[in-house]
Specification:
The protein has six helices and 16 strands. With 268 residues, it is an alpha/beta fold. It has a six-stranded mixed β-sheet. Strands 8-9-10-11-14-15 form a six-stranded mixed β-sheet, with helices on one face. InterPro entries: C-N_Hydrolase, C-N_Hydrolase_sf, Nit1/2_C-N_Hydrolase.
């Protein structure tokens, strides 16, 4: 099964970001991708954290969700909308939500990011909890590819990558990590963590990212990647918008899991 990790450098207007995302998804579909995954905040990288509040949507309706459903249907592929802001329990917060859509345009899974990023090094400061309300559980879905094979897809977002227990709980064949890593943390840890999650779960990892200089002045690390269950990087894009495509081989994954049955050897 071919999959696509879509890298973006999202700006400050939803309409412009959706236009770019649509073009990149169509590029992925034309290359034969059956699953395309957009990065975290694909629809908006605002000038301020609070800009998310103005574009939040109720679950099940809104321009961003309509775009995802329509694009999945028109392109005939499974589409995961990295993250978008959905309504939270109070008016001062949003949920940072990843939604998966089938080729029929149906929403088949919802994951609200459970780990909220906080970082301060004297030059940069981030605290997602100021505007984002954490989710409360895991999410996965079963994708049947065009060959009739079922894949268990586990959902996560960005900072979740630092919490390996989440991925153990997902017990998936393919792990999704749409992200917007900062340049500093990405340079230090992005590839290391992605390959570790792939190896310890003997799973494929699809990690689309924001990658470049944004209108709001933020710089994201990029390096969108596809990693196989042995930790080999199948494809990457360092910076700028684009599509990274690779073939996921179910037989190779099965062989690796037989040769090194670490998942069966778990004690804790």
């Amino acid at each position: 099964m071919k999959v696509a990790a879509i890298q973006m450098v999202s700006g400050t207007t939803v309409s412009g970001n959706l236009e770019q995302a649509g073009a990149l998804v169509r590029e992925a579909a034309a290359a034969g991708a059956e699953l395309a995954v957009l990065p975290e905040y694909f629809c908006l990288m605002g000038r301020r954290d609070g800009d998310k509040l103005a574009v939040r949507e109720p679950f099940g309706g809104g321009a961003i969700q309509d775009f995802l459903a329509r694009t999945a249907r028109e392109c005939g592929l499974w589409l995961v909308g990295g993250t978008l802001p959905l309504e939270a329990s109070d008016a001062s917060h949003v949920r940072n939500t990843s939604l998966a859509f089938s080729p029929a345009g149906e929403c088949v899974a919802r994951y609200d990011k459970i780990h909220l990023f906080r970082f301060e090094n004297g030059r940069e400061r981030y605290d997602e909890s100021r505007v984002i309300e954490a989710g409360g559980g895991t999410a996965s879905f079963v994708l049947r590819d065009r060959a009739g094979r079922d894949w268990r897809i586990g959902m996560s977002v960005c900072y979740d990558l630092r919490f390996p227990e989440l991925y153990r709980a997902l017990a998936a064949d393919v792990l999704l990590v749409p992200s917007a890593f900062t340049y500093v943390t990405g340079q230090a840890h992005w590839e290391l963590l992605l390959r570790a999650r792939a190896v310890e779960n003997l799973a494929y990892v699809v990690a689309p990212a924001q990658g470049g200089e944004h209108e709001n002045g933020r710089r994201t690390w990029g390096h969108s990647m596809l990693v196989d269950p042995w930790g080999e990087v199948l494809g990457r894009r360092e910076e700028g918008p684009g599509v990274v495509i690779a073939e996921l081989d179910a037989a190779r994954q099965a062989s690796v899991r037989v040769q090194l049955p670490a998942l069966e050897h778990r004690v804790l």
